[in-house]
Amino acid sequence: MLQAPPAAPGMREEEIDTPALLIDLDSFEANLDRMQALLAPTGARLRAHAKTHKSPVIARLQMRRGAVGQCVQKIAEAEALAWGGVPDILVSNEVIGRGKLARLAALAGLSEIALCTDDPSQIAVLEDVASAARTRLRVLVEIDVGAGRCGVAPGPDAVALARRIAASPQLRFAGLQAYHGGAQHIRKENERKSAIESAITLTRRTVEQLRQQGLDCPIVGGGGTGSFAFEAGSGVFTEIQAGSYCFMDADYAQNLDESGLPVSTFRQSLFVLATVMSRPRPDGAVIDAGHKAVAVDSGLPLVWQQPEIRYVGASDEHGNLTIGAAATPPELGQKLRLVPGHCDPTVDRYDWYVGVRNGRVECLWPISARGGFS
Which of helix, strand or coil describes residue 228? Predict the structure, then answer.
């Protein structure tokens, strides 16, 4: 059931019902502009990853600034974006099951649709579904460039699978998916760069071998918020699939540059707003944001701009804070901004974004692609 909006336009931030998911609009818009400015001289296009924001509204704002389309991980996300008017969608994941594939093929009447495969046994099913929907599905071959997750081996195995796709009248070979997810959170710049350089080498060799077989790669996709500069500057990748850059989180903030300082390319723009609901001790407080309000898989959230106040534990509906001696203790009923450790699953807990500018609510955006398992 859709949750009631926690705020209304014009409301002051301290009046917002909590817990609520806030977007600082000035920082958010600066992030969108910054990514496009960084990619412009490289020739690589942005295909922003909607698994982060799960919102056709944000997708369209990204595309207004030049993004070529969106990535998703699930059919339900693709459906929400297509129904919301996003014209070009890549499911950057394998889709297994005739029912899900039929749903995906049905979207081809609304948007340009593409998906990934890493197994030749799936080709016949893809052909059947495309034929039944009277469409040609764009299919990318996913290669494993070091993440150790999905993907066929780069080189001959990938070429053989691409040739099988290209030979099908129901399918179109659309290129390679070459995302190294494991490298995104390698903290040291030189180690992160080394991992991506290896991925670039494997991808370049596969692209060259495909071209030797007469197969072009319209899409060579990959790259994330932690590594996109390397892929974009490689001359190999044509599309960058960064998602978290628009929001950022506490985990990405731990990535370092060459000098060992935090990378500061993008601003923190996503927050969980919480209310102090109890002050049981002078050095502690309890807020109304626990496991159901903020993801902790990548660490506990931070209290924004108050390092002396630490979030130290969560239960279902409570978050425990410790208050350092140098901190100004928060009052009962006071609102605090939290920086989530991991933005993607935190977003998935909410139905609404509350867009705030200069301390006032400016807009409410539905998170229409959240939830579900399909």
Answer: helix
Whether residue 233 sits in one domain with residue 93: yes
- Can you spell out the DSSP letters for 121-136? GGHHHHHHHHHHTT--
Q: What element of type H or E holds 172?
A: strand 171-177
Q: Are 359 and 231 part of one and the same domain?
A: no
Helix (H, G, I), strand (E, B) or coil at 246: helix
Give the residue ranges of DSSP H helices in 181-225. 189-212
Regarding whether 184 and 96 lie in a shared domain, the answer is yes
Q: Judge whether 126 lies within some domain.
A: yes
Q: In whole angstroms, give the CA distance from residue 88 to residue 86.
A: 6
Specify whether 164 is located in the same domain as 102. Answer: yes
Residues 314 and 237 in one domain: no
Task: Clarify whether residues 95 and 126 are in a common domain.
Answer: yes
Rounded CA-CA distance 195/182 in Å is: 9
Q: Which stretches of 229-316 are assigned E, i.e. beta strand?
A: 239-240, 270-281, 284-287, 302-303, 309-314
Domain with 318, as residue range(s), is 13-21+264-366
Domain total of the chain:
2
Per-residue pLDDT of the chain (374 residues; tens, 9 = 90+): 578 899 999 999 999 999 999 999 999 999 999 999 999 999 999 999 999 999 999 999 999 999 999 999 999 999 999 999 999 999 999 999 999 999 999 999 899 999 999 999 999 999 999 999 999 999 999 999 999 999 999 999 999 999 999 999 999 999 999 999 999 999 999 999 999 999 999 999 999 999 999 999 999 999 999 999 999 999 999 999 999 999 999 999 999 888 787 887 899 999 999 999 999 999 999 999 999 999 999 999 999 999 999 999 999 999 999 999 999 999 999 999 999 999 999 999 999 999 999 999 999 999 999 986 77
Q: Does residue 79 sit in helix, strand or coil?
A: helix
- Tokens matching residue 159: 């070429």
Question: pTM for the full model?
Answer: 0.96
> Do the domain assignments include residue 89?
yes
